[in-house]
Specification:
Helix content: 25-40%
Shape: globular
Number of helices: 3
Strand content: 15-25%
Structural class: alpha+beta
Strand order of the largest sheet: 1-2-4-3
Number of strands: 4
CATH class: Alpha Beta
Distance between the termini: 19 Å
CATH topology: Ribosomal Protein S5, domain 2
Order of helices and strands: HEEEHEH
Number of domains: 1
CATH architecture: 2-Layer Sandwich
Radius of gyration: 14 Å
Largest sheet: 4 strands, mixed
Length: 115
Amino acid sequence: MPTVNKKLTGKEKLKNPADFKRVSKKGRRYSSDNLNLSVLKVGDKTEKTRIGITIPNRVEKSAVKRNKTRRLIREFFRLNKDKFTAGTDYSFYVRKNVFTNYLTMEKELKKLLKF
């Protein structure tokens, strides 16, 4: 069984607001009841796959709950890195914060990403 990296590196995260905008404007969009996903191919298969997560204050007032949701999405990405296309940026936008545990969030993401 292949080993999974224990941590996301800085190169695997969208950090710059311009990157988020570029993925949102030019990327292909997918939606579910609680999430929007924008996907943009940015390079060849040798490039890293990057993810970005946006959860606005109006969706969830509590910073603790917003951060928990971010951690859950990052954990899903970390455990399923091999299923994501290399050289692609993924931007997750949470519309409703209903993710109280990993299993709920995993089911929604697998449905959205068609894993």
